[in-house]
Amino acid sequence: MKLTVLKFSSQDCGTCHRMAHYDAKVATELGTELINVMLQDTNLYRRYRKVLLAQYPNKEGMGWPTYLLVSDPEGDFTIHGALRGGMPKGEFRQKLAALLPGKA
User: Fold this and answer.
1) Which residues contact 20 (CB under 8 A, 6 or more apart)?
2) How far is CA 44 from CA 24, 41, 103, in A?
3) Residue 85 CB partners (closer than 8 Å, separation 6+)
């Protein structure tokens, strides 16, 4: 099963920008694909909005950025975990790896 990391972020978010220096690389190293869903990219945001709202129906409790680990994000998706807010590269790698089956 191929897992995808959906990163919900904003152009105005400094933490999102800082994490962009390493989040995609870490996701790839762990065998997943990262899709950066900027709120300003209305087409991409609309495409994955249903996934975000399944985890955060009122967007309460979201962090900037919010990462959702999902299978089949284009179809009948399943959310396998979430990470919220900024963190250093090592912590991000550790937390994302802990969400992956057989990687922790």
Assistant:
1) 9, 36
2) 17, 6, 29
3) 15, 63, 64, 65
pLDDT of the residue at 20? 96
Distance CA 50, CA 55 (A): 9
3-state secondary structure of 1: coil
Please, what is the average pLDDT of the chain?
94
- Which amino acid is it at 25? K
Q: Within the chain, where are the H helices?
A: 14-19, 23-29, 42-55, 89-99
User: Containing H/E element for 75?
Assistant: none
Type of residue found at 8: F
- pTM score of the predicted model: 0.94
Query: What domains can you pick out in the chain, each with its CATH number?
Result: 3-99 (3.40.30.10)
